[in-house]
Amino acid sequence: MEKKQYDNYLNILNEELVPAMGCTEPIAVALAAAKARDVLGCMPEHITMHCSGNIIKNVKGVIVPNSGGKKGIAPAAILGVLAGKSEKLLEVIADADDTAIAKTYELCEQNFCTCTLAADEENLYIRAELTHASDKVAVEIRTNHSHISLIEKNGSVLFSQPDISAVHMGDKSKLNLPDIFSFANEVRIDDVSSLLQRQIEYNSAISHEGLVHNWGAGVGRTLLAAGGTEDVRMRARAAAAAGSDARMNGCSLPVVINSGSGNQGITCTMPLVIYAKELGTSKEKLYRALVLVNLLALHQKFFIGNLSAFCGAVSAGAAAGCGIAYLHGAENDVIERTLINAIGNVGGIVCDGAKASCAAKISSAVDAGILGYEMAKNNRCFPFGEGLVEKDAEQTVQNIGRMGRIGMRATDVEILNIMLGA
């Protein structure tokens, strides 16, 4: 690869594969509120959160970690104000203690925090407004869960920066399948080993937590109880689902995310960890497979957008199937057919918010990825012209992205209306 593209792909991985605790949407809410309190300099008298529909959707049904089991925007924002450390970004409320939890319960009952829908804003938008006496501070997060784009105090702009773009971060518009394959094969392991080892360790830990303890609907545990211990396919599905079981239901263990999502990060990681163990794969080959999977997931999500009505587990599960193919020594054409088969199968799963059932969707997506590979290695592929399937994987990815970004806008609005009882 050319050095410029090589460095770009490294930048993308370093910027995207970062630790986060809990579901990233409530954590982003907590981050905005914590930063606003820093600027205000004291405990506010009231918090008002203005959030886009996708933020509201993804916070409504998920338990905020370190909150004592609370769900919703109010406890996330209040906990951010009480115990947040904004410098820790997506681990902002990692240090919340029992005192903060008890106070969060109390303030939630007093309507200390209110939330409004921010209409006509992009899908990832949060504005935290804190007031005390005559002082008012506002902090905005846009385009990325930790990207603070605006800070105001009493109507004066203290800080602003443009939305995240290719000017100052890895340029995901340059991702493409041939270069992703080349990078996975050519990357110097020393350039990615620490990053990927952290991904393996963090995501394996929360997966283990979901398998040994009863979190949420227990999808991972259910899969193993149904005979999954003898079947590597079922173990791979269970390991990915179990991480989501724990994460969606309040586990405070950090995960390494992909595309701004812990669930997608877990889905990219755990099936490969399970298959690598089954196959006796070397650490280097596992790292290269993870490079492939992470970039394939990011490539798909680039066309869909960070948040939409399209379930991101589909992209991650399809990418995981490609990684499993890579671990088996598959050539690029088999990997491309795996991708087409997987997204051609479960590309219609909708996102109706972060919650316990995400674990089941992850299981289905990983299953589709594995099936996609089993078909592809036998030279079977959904043919061009059937639905969204194109003559090549690259165009199929773009077709799915167009459907998720544009075609499902109305679906997104209707899902939110249903969830809010409108």
Q: What features would you describe in this structure?
A:
With 422 residues, this protein is α+β, with helices and mostly antiparallel strands. It has two domains: 21-160, 2-Layer Sandwich (60s Ribosomal Protein L30, Chain: A), CATH 3.30.1330.90; 172-419, 2-methylcitrate dehydratase PrpD (Orthogonal Bundle), CATH 1.10.4100. 56% of the residues lie in helices and 10% in strands. The mean pLDDT is 95.
Short summary:
The chain is α+β, with helices and mostly antiparallel strands and 422 residues long. The protein has helices at 3-16, 24-40, 53-60, 73-83, 98-109, 177-186, 189-212, 219-225, 232-247, 262-279, 283-304, 312-327, 332-346, 358-376, 393-407, 409-419, and strands spanning 19-21, 46-51, 113-117, 125-132, 135-142, 148-153, 156-160, 254-256.
Kindly report the average pLDDT value: 95
Low-confidence stretches: none
- Using the alpha-carbon principal axes, give the shape: globular
What's the story with the biggest beta sheet? 6 strands, mixed
- Helix/strand-derived class? alpha+beta
CATH top level assignment of the largest domain: Mainly Alpha
What is the tally of beta strands? 8
Number of helical runs? 16
Strand content: 5-15%
Going across the biggest sheet, name each strand in turn: 3-2-4-5-6-7
What is the CATH architecture annotation of the largest domain? Orthogonal Bundle
State Rg: 21 Å
